[in-house]
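Hi R.,

Here's the chain you asked about this morning:
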Amino acid sequence: MGSKKLKITLVHSAIGRNEKQRRTLKALGLSKLNQTVIKDDRPEIRGMVNKLKHLLDVEEIEAEEV
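And the predicted structure, written out as tokens:
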């Protein structure tokens, strides 16, 4: 059985957002609208996603799907 992953997509622009939110997006590897990254389901990543939940679309996937 594979580990869980998070499929994170930027669905709202970072324009007009504060510097901390823009830095968090950069740390997640997101810079362009509709860009998607796959990250391990870890508490650190969940925390970043929680801070930006109004900008992101998040989906849990199995590692085999990647």
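The CA atoms of residues 10 and 60 lie 15 Å apart.

Let me know if you need anything else.
M.
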